[in-house]
Amino acid sequence: MPSNINARQFLKAAAYRRTCYALTNTSKVSDERIVEIVQEVLSFAPSSYNMQSARLSVVLGKNHEAMWDAIIEAAGPILKEFGVWDTMKPILEGSRNSSGSVLFFEKETTIHAAREAHKSAAHMFSELSDHASGMHQILVWTALELEGLGANLQHLNTIPVVEDIIKNHSGFSPDEVTLFKLKAHLNFGDEVGTHPTVPAKLALSETLRVVK
Questions:
Q1: Most CB within 10 Å of its CB: which of 4, 31, 136, 210?
Q2: Cα–chain-centroid distance for residue 6?
Q3: In whole angstroms, what is the distance from residue 198 CA to residue 15 CA?
């Protein structure tokens, strides 16, 4: 058990993480440090049966700008058709104006192989993959905010054309990325204004039971 950290400190760090939309395209944290954080998360974050289906990409600089320009151009007509463009436009433009994005994929052939290897639990592996991806997401998100950046997690893979654009800018080869499923993308940059407060939560009497 490490002696230099305790549960209270860990939970305080986790509680600091918030959704920050007001970001700039600058970063007080170096590209190298951001990549180091993502590498460290990949080195220890758990996955069921040690499946290791996670595939992450850090998109920075001109490639980040180009990715978001393409997303806004492609998503605009679709979002207008559904009547949500006025709501989504500031979010997309804020993502474009951030410093970078971490992309979270799951490799579907790895999940399929796990199903074949563990047939008694085969029906669970899509869900288990989501659990693992969520842990990668929260760990990277929390770590970047502790380094002094703001960040927000988005799921624009609800629009198929956007997922294709994000895959094309992921740095993985076309042969590789066709096997991936996008789960989320985390936009980050220097934070503008006051760090968001914790939103209201349901009473613990409603959300927790203790059974002895």
A1: 136
A2: 26
A3: 8
